[in-house]
Each structure stands twice: as C-alpha cells, then as structure tokens.
Fold this sequence. Notes:
Elements: H1 14-22, E1 26-31, E2 36-38, E3 46-52, E4 55-60, E5 66-72, E6 77-78, H2 80-85, E7 92-95, E8 99-105, H3 116-144, H4 149-164, E9 168-170, H5 175-182, H6 186-198, E10 202-205, E11 208-211
Antiparallel strand pairs: 1-8, 2-7, 3-6, 3-8, 4-5, 4-7, 9-11, 10-11
Amino acid sequence: MKLVPSPLFQGLSPADLDALAAAGLLRQKTFAKHTVIFRAGSRVQEIGVVVQGTVHIENFDLWGTKSILSSISAGQAFAETYAFCGDALMVDAVAAEDCTVLLLSTRVLSDARVSPAVRDTLLRNLLAVSMRKSLSLSQRIFCTTPKTVRGRLLTYFSAQAAKAGGLEFDGPFNRQQMADYLNLDRSALSKELCKMRDEGLLEFEKNHFRLNELPE
C-alpha cells in the first residue's frame, strides 16, 4: 500500500501498511461528495485518514442548524476519539468533495499480528494527532467567541494568516461553509465581507483572501 503523508503514519513504511491491510486492520474506501462517512448516533471502531479530498465534521442542533466544527484535509485523521472511547458520535463526518479515505481499525493496538514497534509508533502518533486536534477545536472556540460578525471574521482571518505565514491565503471554506463554521447567517457574513472590502481592509475572490490591514 502506498504510504500516505500523514502524522498518524509517521515512522511507518509501505510494508508496515501492507501488513496492516493484510491483517484486515486497514482498508481504503472512496466516498462521493456529500456522503456521510460516519453518522451522528453511531459507534465506530475505525479511525479515518483522508488520502484525497476533504471531510467536514458537522453538527446539527435540534432546530436543524448546521455548524462545521472542522475541515479535515489530506493526511489528517478524524473520529479517533470516538473510535477509542466507544461513545456514540455527536457529529457527522461528511465528504465535502469526492474523497478517498483510509480506515484504520482500533484493533490495531491489541492484535497480536501487529509488531510492538508498529504499535508503539501508532500510539505516539495518535497522541500527537489528538493534541493537534485539541488545538484546532480551541481555534474554532476563539473564532466564535466574539459577539459581532466582524469580530469573528477578524479572529478567523488572523488564524488563517498565521497558518499561511502571510496576509494572502486560500481559505478552506466556501461562503456557506464559512458561515456554518463561524455560527453566522450567510447573508450577514457576506454583507460584512463587502463592507470590509469597501473599507480597504481586505480583497477577496471566492475563497482567496488578501488582508491589506487589520484595525488596531
């Protein structure tokens, strides 16, 4: 199996992945856009790793309002906490576009056919992945804390610029997805973006943004 550039598989070889696949502990699957990979309320025993495409972690409240909690791109893992804790999912994992996903069984940590070296490597990697995921969730909390639309946008753009290492970047979301991520009404978000553009704070074309300046 081709080695996937992923923090979860760091330190493993293609032969290690082949051995996991031969043992029935690792499989690859493709999903069409909008397909629910893992559904809220279900229990999973596999960790997903995106090979190609994007997966969104989504939540719907009792009134049907959707929030996008995170965007999982190629190389990143999802559902690892639910898989190992055994709790029912509180979120949906949805293919945001046509995507390919590797599914790693939690039995990998107890199956006697898995070498101690591979098991230890996966455990270290899982810990690192979990820590990064905590940081990602904290970032979303920061982005949704401001009370105003502009406050949320400025926090979001600051985080994206820091991640890109500059004031010009491609965001991971379209307008509706950005509104869902920031817990905002789409029309209110679009109106505020246009106001910020007219004030010379930024320029944008679809999901490509350039920040000219940020207010003090």
